[in-house]
Design a protein that fits this description.
Elements lengths: L2 H10 L7 H15 L3 E2 L8 H11 L5 H12 L1 H8 L3 E6 L5 H9 L5 E6 L6 H10 L4 E2 L2 E2 L5 H7 L5 E6 L9 H15 L3 E7 L4 H7 L6 H17 L8 E8 L4 E8 L3 E5 L2 E5 L4 E8 L3 H10 L2 E8 L5 E8 L2
The structure holds N,N,N-trimethyl-histidine (AVJ).
Length: 328
């Protein structure tokens, strides 16, 4: 292959770019731009810049989810610890930071293992030593994997005790209800008894939901646009992020927040050697964030073969934490 051909194949074949992660992102971006309506998985938001922006979102006044879930965890840590029991083997799906797991670990008698699972666990290498020092007898084993296939993940780390899953932050809201049911079925099959603690954002006044995804400081807008900046950095694309408007709204029929990037003008973007045109007003759908009623979520869990147990909510009924038991 001559130099030109080599360069060309590098441009058109995302698998020929550096890391497997970048290759997956490149393939997903190409697919996203080829289909109508254009859409891409929200899992690609979380490069280091995106993760930092998400941490900022978690501290915003408008974004009630994180602080509400933390308050519920703190208030009911003892009840949760009793359900989990001694020598627990905790697997956290989509663990950003271990802050919330720490609230649970603080209340547990002699936890055996904490395995945070995320696409990238680079940010967790420092946390491993900290955690092992805080909890003598605990072994911390970060696992780099796509938690979209929970059964495969659970089979990759055979249990060392009573197995309990953590799926916090309403990350389950990124899945459609059908995908969420499949996820829960996989967890049910992989837990072998034990249980799952899931944080689920609740259906509420659309104005409150709207504010949570349209903060005054524009941090959510920056988080959304970072997807395009990340593509520019990792894939060599030439998106102009500021020529895409952040658009997030609550869709009550689907009970979900939809997040989009809407092209503010006609423009052409080059991705992996291909040109893609955006008409003015054309959108790239970047995220769904489904909301549930308490009963609606319990029904979904039952449909996945899990047995719904206690549910804890805040006084304003904004957020819920569910204990789901896995049958042996
Ligand atoms: C991490 C998926 C729970 O849907 O609320 C925050 C991500 N998107 N602001 C959410 C997010 C926009 C968040 N989850």
């Amino acid at each position: 292959m001559d130099m030109d051909a080599a360069l060309n194949s590098r441009k058109t074949d995302p698998a020929a770019t550096t890391s497997p992660a970048a290759a997956e992102f490149g393939a997903a971006m190409l697919q996203a731009l080829r289909r109508r309506p254009r859409s891409i998985s929200p899992k690609f938001f979380y490069d280091p810049d995106g993760a930092a922006l998400f941490e900022q979102i978690c501290g915003l006044d408008e974004y009630y989810l994180t602080r509400t879930e933390i308050a519920i965890l703190r208030e009911h840590a003892q009840d949760i610890a009793r359900l989990i029991g001694p020598r627990a083997d905790l697997v956290e799906f989509g663990a950003g930071t271990p802050d919330k797991a720490r609230i649970v670990l603080d209340a547990l008698p002699s936890p055996a293992r904490y395995a945070p699972v995320d696409l990238s666990v680079d940010h967790l290498t420092g946390a491993k030593d900290d955690l092992e020092r805080s909890y003598p007898g605990l072994s911390v084993e970060p696992l780099a994997a796509d938690f979209g296939r929970p059964l495969a993940v659970l089979m990759q780390c055979p249990s060392v005790g009573r197995r309990v899953g953590l799926f916090l932050g309403s990350t389950i809201g990124n899945l459609s209800p059908e995908q969420a049911r499949d996820f829960l079925s996989g967890v049910a099959a992989g837990l072998g008894g034990g249980g799952l603690l899931v944080g689920v954002d609740l259906v509420k006044d659309p104005a409150v939901l709207h504010r949570a995804y349209n903060d005054a400081d524009g941090i959510t807008a920056a988080f959304n646009r970072n997807l395009l900046s990340r593509a520019n950095r990792e894939l060599g694309t030439d998106f102009d992020p500021l020529s895409f408007d952040h658009y997030a709204f609550y869709e009550p029929c689907e009970q979900r927040i939809e997040m989009h990037l809407v092209s503010s003008r006609r423009q052409t973007v080059r991705v992996c050697g291909c040109a893609f045109e955006f008409a003015q007003g054309e959108t790239l759908h970047t995220e769904n964030s489904y909301k549930y009623t308490v009963e609606g979520f319990r029904d979904l869990a039952r449909g996945a073969g899990l047995v719904p147990g206690p549910v804890w909510c805040d006084a304003q009924h904004r957020f819920s934490l569910h204990w789901l038991a896995a049958q042996r």
